[in-house]
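Interim report to the steering committee. The following record documents the input for Alpha-D-GlcNAc-diphosphoryl polyprenol, alpha-3-L-rhamnosyl transferase (335 residues).
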Amino acid sequence: MVGARPRPVDGGGGPTAGVAGRAGPWFTVVAVNDSAAPIGIVTVTYSPGEYLTRFLDSVPGATDRGAVVVMADNGSTDGAPEAAEAKYSFAELLHTGGNIGYGAGMDRGIDTLRARRAAGEIDDEFVVIVNPDVVFHPGAVDELIAAAERHPRAGAVGPLIHEVDGSVYPSARAVPTLVSGIGHALLGKVWKDNPFSRRYRDDADMTRERTSGWLSGSCQLLRWDAFDAIGGFDERYFMYMEDMDLGDRLARSGRENIFTPAAEITHAQGHSASAHPEITVPAHHESAYRFQADRLDARWQAPVRWVLWAGLKVRCAVALWSAQRALRTGQAERN
């Protein structure tokens, strides 16, 4: 930990975490102390509702450094991001211009922080990406930074993720091969403990700090230079697997993806995705194809890509029918 946790400044409409003042639509950032500038945090919002308030309430306790939170908004209609910008003096709203996807939204938010990084107003080594339905446990961001400092080759560091029911989410996973990916896709629902899914989840030990193939994009600490070296997120991924792709490209560039249980968050995942299977199910399968096809790009592998594409189309149709049926059944039971 660096220094003492700053005392919230009264009058800002909420916790300030060591950030004070406004200059037009932007903030004037005041570092907590001379040795540690505030950490930049980016979240992508799309009508996040009350989850955004819980997330922002947890930010001041997550780090002693102070923070600047950019909300890259992909077209919210619930007014939550606007209300949050008015309430929290360390949060600012960036309209991306539409629902451009998770990775593209993160890239826009990170780009917004670059001028502040160059001016020394925020930490120039690390930036945090996080979902707006996450709640940081006390000291979580500082623990992520400490882990990154223990691992100089780390390009990304991820925390232990608790589900809302208290279970631990397997957030540090192996990068799937074509065979393990197909096995997991075919057997994961009907045989939970099949060898392909076990290899993919790579969750046998969530109690120690270790290297992983990739980390959940719900919360990561990134090294700026490592992120920039691989060109940020691949914006062809609208949603799903952009984090897997990022982690794999970091590893291919010589960086490490480090999981640390010393940092903890709670994630209310899936609360909106399950309500819109007509969007999420096709997006998931399109991302699955893109990830494997990019890594099977030789001309002689074209037949493999064709079979993969056809198989995923069939699986997508079945999964979408099943999800919509479950949604209709749930609505009928509530009525």
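The chain has three domains: 22-170+206-268, 176-200, 275-327. The committee is asked to note this result when reviewing the revised timeline.
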